[in-house]
Design brief:
The protein is an alpha/beta fold and 377 residues long. The chain has two domains: 130 residues, Alpha-Beta Complex (Aspartate Aminotransferase, domain 1), CATH 3.90.1150.10; 235 residues, Type I PLP-dependent aspartate aminotransferase-like (Major domain) (Aspartate Aminotransferase, domain 2, 3-Layer(aba) Sandwich), CATH 3.40.640. Helix content is 40%, strand content 14%. It is built from twelve helices and twelve strands. Strands 1-9-8-5-4-2-3 form a seven-stranded mixed sheet, sandwiched between helices. A three-stranded antiparallel sheet has the order 7-6-10, with no helix packed on it. Strand 2, helix 5 and strand 3 form a beta-alpha-beta unit. Helix 2 runs antiparallel to helix 9. It is globular. The chain binds pyridoxal-5'-phosphate. Pyridoxal-5'-phosphate binds next to helix 4 and helix 5.
Length: 377
């Protein structure tokens, strides 16, 4: 038997190490919710929205999950039938799902090889293509893939020239910065997810929309709460039910209290991997003007599947985000793709592999990951 098989596995994401750091405060916070009994939109939700608003410098509306957050952002722009929503093909399916749920047409553009994020050049072609196809380009969703903010300085004027609004799909990037500006105000609207594995994750489902404009924030709150208000049982517009519950908010408040301490630790793990793996695999993208939230540490290798298998045998957890571009997911086949296709997205889907990363990954565990990768490539 390989000696490494006797060691404890290194999971790709370890939530228990963080929980140990946060106890007993975490359990006490959850018990406080059980005691006060305001399980939905209770005082923890209010406190969390305030703190997230302070962190981001934008108005924060919490909701049920990141997919709802994207849909609410699109809804607040009245995106619907006949509208095009340009987005990268290399993303999680939820980005496209939100647009289709609003009745709009997703138009898949390619990503940049250097950032894995929406290519401004491909986005420009997709906007032009959408208009020529008779659609109104209403929104561009830029995805901060793996925690690295997209190139908003390039995308914003492009979208504006079509009267379209940029929405940040910040599901993976809460905590990141671009030009020292926090995620939440990098675009007029940002949507994040608090799914457990995210840089700021709860112990269930959760999400939030950030809006830089107060009026838009009010509209989103109305849409997320059954179109209700002012007052109860006064439904002034069609809405949906998308709420964060108080237990998840209590969990998030505990986790937010250590996020500023965790982000540099995540960066330190990434730097250590970079130094050890440089020249042996293709390292994850970085940007000189950005600090990633490091939702994933994702390398590229031409023999990705074999590498993943070898790491698995050495007890190292890995993940493939994502094995195919969204335009080739059966649910989205037939939706328009930018002329020229999405060759970079295709290449990435064939080559990416995410390695274990969390703020509490011991140096010993990091060394095991490094040794296993070096042995396999
Ligand atoms: C890029 C991206 N967008 C949207 C979502 C949707 O978030 P949720 O799972 O909270 O609905 C995710 C979640 O994995 C994501 O990674």
């Amino acid at each position: 038997m390989n000696i490494q098989n006797k060691l404890a596995p290194v999971p790709v994401i370890d939530l228990q190490a963080q929980r140990a750091r946060l106890e007993p405060g975490m359990s006490e916070a959850v018990l406080r919710v059980l005691a006060h009994g305001r399980f939905v939109l209770g005082p923890e939700v209010e406190a969390l929205e305030r703190q997230l608003g302070d962190w981001s410098g934008a108005h924060c509306i919490t909701c049920g999950n990141g997919t709802d957050a994207l849909e609410l952002a699109l809804w607040s722009l009245d995106v619907g039938v006949g509208d095009a929503v340009v987005m990268p093909a290399f993303t999680f399916a939820a980005t496209a799902e939100a647009a289709v749920k609003r009745g709009a047409t997703p138009v898949f553009a390619d990503v940049d090889e250097a950032s894995f994020n929406l290519s401004a050049e491909s986005c420009a072609r997709a906007l032009d293509f959408a208009r020529r196809a008779g659609l109104r380009p209403k929104a561009v969703i830029a995805v901060d893939l793996f925690g690295l903010p997209a190139d908003y300085a390039a995308l914003a004027p492009l979208a504006a020239s079509y009267d379209a609004t940029v929405i940040a799909d910040a599901a993976q990037s809460f905590g990141a910065t671009l030009d020292n500006q926090p995620v939440g105000r990098l675009a007029p609207l940002s949507a994040t997810s608090f799914y457990p594995s995210k840089p700021l994750g709860c112990y269930g489902d959760g999400g939030a929309v950030f809006a830089t404009d107060e009026g838009v924030a009010k509209k989103i709150r109305l849409l997320a709460r059954h179109g209700q208000g002012p007052g109860r049982y006064n439904h002034v517009t069609l809405g949906m039910n998308s709420r964060l519950d108080s237990m998840q908010a209590a969990v998030l408040l505990q986790k937010l209290s250590v996020l500023a301490e965790e982000l540099p630790k995540r960066e330190a793990v990434a730097k250590r991997y970079d130094a050890a793996l440089k020249g042996r695999v293709e390292l994850p993208p970085r940007a000189a003007n950005a600090a990633s939230a490091w939702a994933c540490y994702t390398i590229r290798h031409p023999d990705r599947d074999r590498l993943g298998e070898a790491l698995g045998q050495a007890g190292i957890g890995t993940a493939v985000h994502y094995p195919r571009p969204v335009n080739r997911q059966p649910a989205f086949v037939g939706q328009p793709v930018v002329p020229g296709g999405v060759p970079v997205s295709e290449r990435l889907a064939a080559e990416v592999l995410s390695l274990p990363l969390c703020a509490y990954l011991s140096q010993r565990a990091q060394d095991r990951v490094i040794e296993a990768v070096l042995a396999a490539v």
